[in-house]
Predict the structure of Cytochrome c peroxidase.
Amino acid sequence: MQQKIWHRLRRNLRMLSLAGLVAAGSAMPALLAGEGGTHPSGLPPLSAASSDNPARIALGKTLFYDKRLSGNGQISCASCHQPERAFSDGEALAKGIGGRNGTRNAPSLLNAAYNASQFWEGRQPTLEAQALDPFTNAREHGLASEDALLAIVRADPAYLAQFRLAFGAAPQSITAGQIGQAIASFERTLIAGNSPFDRYYYRGEQAALNASARRGLALFQGAAKCTSCHRIERDSALFSDDDFHSLSVGLQRIAPQLPALTTRLVRLRAQAEKLGDHVLSEEDVAELGRFALTLKPADIGKFRTPSLRNVALTAPYMHDGSVATLEEAVELEIYYRSAEAGYPLILTPAEKQDLVAFLKALNSPEASRPPAHWR
């Protein structure tokens, strides 16, 4: 009942605002910004730091799709973050240089601008740092150093023109930091809301969700306890608490080796070894999760709560890609919530299907049909 009242109030306020705009002769695009305009429905405003100039965004897009920026000239950022797959890759484990698998499922980059930190264990604090990390990782782009990356860029007249326009940079003053900034600028344009859920929940369009998805939403917010980690707020929903949790996925396998693994990782960190190289090349180290960054025992096996937006487009799931379908993911989450609550959460097969129907209603039209400026 409260939810219906909230939808009705919001709809009435919106109609009053529309009447005022029409009376004043105001332009419609500002009103419709949340309905396919500049800011998608269901997402919070981005910080001022995301207001980048078009030249920087264009440069970032060029860098993002450039396969030359790899050790063998065959890998780009888009190799693992494909626009037609909601900027993921459909693989259990991401494939890098030479077709070798890493240890992580490639997360979608859609709405990554909202993350407080980046990567599954949060090992980089910003989009800028995240954008640079793969270039010199032996399992990803495989370049020997940032100097090798800069050499490719500085030798290309087209890049020199773009960097001059975006940063006012002369050839030898181009930096790796500017490369990271440009790619991050492009990634901040990868914002996708306007899902059927958003239209139903934030615009009050009752027909946007079918009956099964509405039942799934009620379960998601209620008996299934999903919102304890996958948050829905009054004005927006990122479907993540931006925190780190352990579902014990993969942890049991390494349990007998934990003392030796944790000791080794502490030693590697003391030697200033690059964390990403070990995380993406050593399966057992990868399963330590956030511990690899913090060295806190309580963080062993903890990974980021991923957003559930566009989740139906990004199978397989979990940090290691070990869960093939949404149905399996729902089963695993129910098991985890039961363990967390201390008592079993019993859902019928029909209720589980309703949850899946709701999750499918989180797909954005932009993710299903990527706009030209993303490609």
